[in-house]
Amino acid sequence: MDSKFKRIAKLFQKLPGVGPRQAARFVLALLDKPDSEVEELGYAISNLKQELTTCAQCFNISDGEFCAVCSNPGRDKTKLLIVEKVTDLDSIEKTGLYKGLYHVLGGAINPLDNILPVNLRISELNNRLELASAVAPIEVILAMNPSTPGETTTLYLKNILSAKPGVVVTRLGRGLASGSHLEYADESTLRHALEYRK
Question: What residue stretches are annotated with the Toprim domain (predicted)?
Fold first, then answer.
């Protein structure tokens, strides 16, 4: 392959989840696109940081001070769902079932990767809760991923938030997936299924 081709492919490899073959496919696909589409993509990428930012309240992706969720007056302000990343927020939003507000932590506690509570948006969460719970009781729903860092973060937040007046802490249900068989479930899944049964 040409050195310029390899250089462009290496730039794509800097994106998460993109390996050498996928990066090469991206470059080849762009070579097949009309110039106008490639220019549009280039313009969008070069202006990405100027056109997109994070919401001043929940830290979702936004093109203004507040995101579409926070600026929607119809959202239930008595519910605040805590997620690790914007992609988690997006997944929950796609279900259409949740009508409350969000708070994006920016990750999960993981001392092995030097991610401590101080590195997350926990102080911003505390500030939001102080203001919100002074007006009306608020339910905080912990929706971290079912991983070791996610569980660590859930326990940490549960401990510090449960003591706050006007704040009720809940978490997403965990357990057996629809269509699964008990004999194939691991101990952790079965424990969660029993602990969070309805």
Answer: 78-177
Q: Which two tokens stand for residue 96?
A: 């259409």
Sheet holding 100-104, edge to edge: 100-104, 76-83, 138-142, 167-171
Question: Can you give the pTM of this predicted structure?
Answer: 0.79
Other residues' Cβ atoms within 10 Å of the Cβ of residue 152: 17
Domains in the chain, ordered, with CATH? Answer: 3-51 (1.10.8.420), 69-181+187-192 (3.40.1360.10)
Nearest-angstrom CA–CA distance, 4 and 6 = 5
Question: Please, which residues bridge with residue 169 across strands?
Answer: 140
Give the CA angle between residues 65, 57, 68 to the nearest 5°: 60
Task: Give me the DSSP letters along 140-160.
Answer: EEE---SSHHHHHHHHHHHHH
Residue 15 DSSP one-character state? S
Nearest to 102 by CA among 148, 55, 170: 55
- β-pair type (100-104, 167-171): unpaired
Amino acid found at 183? E
Above 80 in pLDDT, residue 99? Answer: yes
